[in-house]
Recover the amino acids of this structure.
């Protein structure tokens, strides 16, 4: 983390709750709630939830209207992991409202932002249970927001996109009434657009993106932990991968949604504009071909072995 004047001020103010200058953390149960928002995550949702279940005290899972096998998998897991797992269905909420709904269901002191394509390490020095110990060791008299690091795999279990090998989007956060997700608008251009999700776009043309971020009061102590306790699996079918890339433009852009009321319609429009093709499978194959052209092999020497729960998938891929 870059040590700025703002960082130093935030670190100083983070002692305010302990000193009684702002309300102390509420008397929540000490523990961790994994907050999981999902939509069409049939490929990895089972491995994802099972891999993290022993490291958290509660799994709050909110399905945003999945149309694949995800609801069936979640229903089965809710029975297997009961009473730890609590399952909700909220198909009509936008991404920010969905995140705030999920956060509001958490009953423990800590929230772990977890996605349906995260898979945790369950053994070794970066086992997810070690992350639990580290989180719960932080002082209960103060508020903390911890940026976590995960390893990004793309296309299959053995490849990554150069420059995007690690990701810092996940976090663990001490809950407070003031904590919430908000929309953020940012204009990106030039080098900021380089990365695997922008392969289908012209990096010379600035784009406006809208995404969610968590809004933190100044009395939160913000930290970054570099140890990769889990993997992010950008590994789905070609159409799903292409639509996921389109979603980054479409999901939080009201103007695009007004023109193209469904993500698939926007995906077809973008495919015609970019490549002159008229079907989603054609667009998806072209998109994934461009992605594969940029990938580099995953380095076990640098990042360590895959999570134990992925070993059956690795064996199946090798056959």
């Amino acid at each position: 983390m870059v040590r700025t004047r703002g960082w130093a001020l935030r670190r100083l103010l983070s002692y305010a709750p302990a000193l009684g200058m702002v309300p102390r953390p509420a008397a929540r149960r000490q523990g961790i709630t994994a907050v999981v928002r999902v939509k069409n995550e049939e490929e990895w949702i089972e491995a994802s939830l099972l891999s993290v279940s022993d490291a958290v005290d509660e799994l709050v899972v909110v399905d945003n209207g999945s149309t694949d096998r995800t609801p069936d998998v979640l229903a089965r897991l809710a029975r297997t992991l009961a009473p730890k797992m609590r399952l909700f269905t909220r198909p009509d909420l936008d991404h920010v409202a969905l995140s705030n709904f999920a956060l509001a269901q958490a009953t423990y002191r800590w929230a772990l932002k977890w996605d349906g394509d995260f898979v945790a390490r369950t053994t070794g020095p970066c086992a997810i249970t070690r992350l639990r110990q580290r989180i719960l060791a932080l002082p209960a008299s103060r508020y903390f927001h911890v940026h976590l690091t995960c390893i990004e795999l793309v296309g299959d279990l053995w490849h990554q996109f150069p420059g995007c090998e690690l990701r810092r989007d996940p976090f663990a956060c001490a809950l407070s009434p003031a904590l919430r997700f908000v929309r953020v608008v940012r204009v990106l251009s030039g080098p900021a657009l380089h990365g695997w999700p922008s392969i289908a776009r012209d990096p010379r043309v600035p784009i406006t993106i809208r995404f969610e971020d968590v809004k933190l009061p100044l009395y939160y102590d913000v930290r970054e932990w570099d140890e990769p306790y889990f993997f992010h699996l950008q590994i789905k079918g070609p159409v799903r991968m292409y639509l996921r890339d389109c979603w980054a433009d479409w999901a939080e852009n009201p103007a695009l949604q007004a023109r193209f009321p469904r993500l698939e319609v926007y995906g077809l429009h973008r495919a015609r504009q970019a490549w002159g093709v008229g079907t989603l499978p054609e667009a998806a194959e072209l998109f994934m071909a461009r992605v594969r052209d940029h990938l580099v092999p995953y380095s076990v020497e640098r990042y360590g072995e895959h999570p134990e729960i992925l070993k059956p998938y690795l064996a199946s891929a090798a056959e």
